[in-house]
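Worked example (supplementary).
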Amino acid sequence: GEDVEQSLFLSVREGDSSVINCTYTDSSSTYLYWYKQEPGAGLQLLTYIFSNMDMKQDQRLTVLLNKKDKHLSLRIADTQTGDSAIYFCAESTSNTGKLIFGQGTTLQVKP
Amino acid sequence: NAGVTQTPKFRVLKTGQSMTLLCAQDMNHEYMYWYRQDPGMGLRLIHYSVGEGTTAKGEVPDGYNVSRLKKQNFLLGLESAAPSQTSVYFCASSYGTAETQYFGPGTRLLVL
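After joint prediction of all chains, the assembly is encoded as:
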C-alpha cells in the first residue's frame, strides 16, 4: 500500500539551512505536499509540488522531487527560531484526494 | 472567512460514553475529511466525504461514524468511546481531489 517515511528529528543552528527528507512508495502520486504544524495548532500548508516537476522555489523554501527514487526534500534557507515546528510530508494519489502523511519531522532551531 | 472550524477544542470522556465532533467550513468546499493524529504516527484518515450526503471509509474507520447532511458541516461520532481513541482529531476540506486541503485547529480528546 501507500507509505510515506520521514526522519523524526532534525536540529540546526539559526541561520543555517535545514533539509527535511521524505520518501514515498506510490509511483502514481500526483501532488506532494509539505505542511507545518506549530505546537498546539493545526496544519498549515507550506508548499506543494506536482509530480511532473523536479523543483519548486518559494522564497526561503525549495522543494526537490526525485521521482525515480521517490524522494522529496524541503530545504529552508536561513532557518529562524520561528521555523521550529513539525513538518509533514504528504502525498495525494487517488481520485478522492486522500492524503497519506509521513510521521512528521520535528525541526529544532537553536539560537 | 473563518475557514475550517472545529467544536469542541478539548473534551474528556469516560470509556463507553458517546460524543460528536463538529467540523464546519465556509469555503463552499465539496470534499471534507476527518483525520486523527497520534504521536509518532502522523495523521491517519478516518472517514471522508466527496459531497453532501456522501461518506466513505478511510484508513482507520472502526469505532467512528460520520454524517454530511449539509455541505458545510461534517460530523464525526464516537458511539462508545475507548481509551484507544484518545487522540487529536483534525478536520480538513478542499474544493476537489487535486486541491489543497485546509485544516481546522484540531480537537483534543482524552478517553479515560
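Two points are worth noting when inspecting this output. The mean pLDDT of chain B is 94. Chain B touches chain A through 28 residues (CB under 8 Å).
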